[in-house]
Give the backbone structure.
Amino acid sequence: MSMPTLNRHWTVADLEDLPDDGNRYEVIDGELFVTPAPALLHQAAVGELYARLRGFLIRQAVGVAFVSPADITFSPTRLVQPDVFVVPITGGRRPKQWTDVTQLLLAVEVLSPTTARADRVRKRRLYGEEGVSEYWIVDLEARTFERSTPSDPRVEVLAEELTWSPAGATESLVMDLSEFFATVLDR
């Protein structure tokens, strides 16, 4: 959801003046986005996806998975908080602080009614422009994952299986999406 800003051009520095009120604040190309606390099923999907990514990344030490809240700053007018994301291991080391994170292997957003447009349009474009290797949108209603890459403008909609092969990995993460959604939604 976008907060009315009266044509104000927001910067990452402006976020320091906003209240610590439980909302998530993001800036994309000078526009402020405010998102309320996520719903229970949203967080169930975030947790399940994080667990699967973390397990894979323990075996394939190419990155580290995190969940928001976490400020990922790409520029003075681009700060986002992806629901789940993977930071590459650089020189055999994990980042020590958020300012060390300058690249993402993967960014994932779980759709909610207030974020769907921003996630599908603004963030998809931002992650592509920032060279994020893959961007996934988890649509709980449709029980699908939407995958985007910077090299292909088309969106791939997946309902049965998702295969992720990050650079440097010797095997791929393969997720049965029917099983993922059953775990998140049906239990």
The first helix runs from residue 40 to 59.
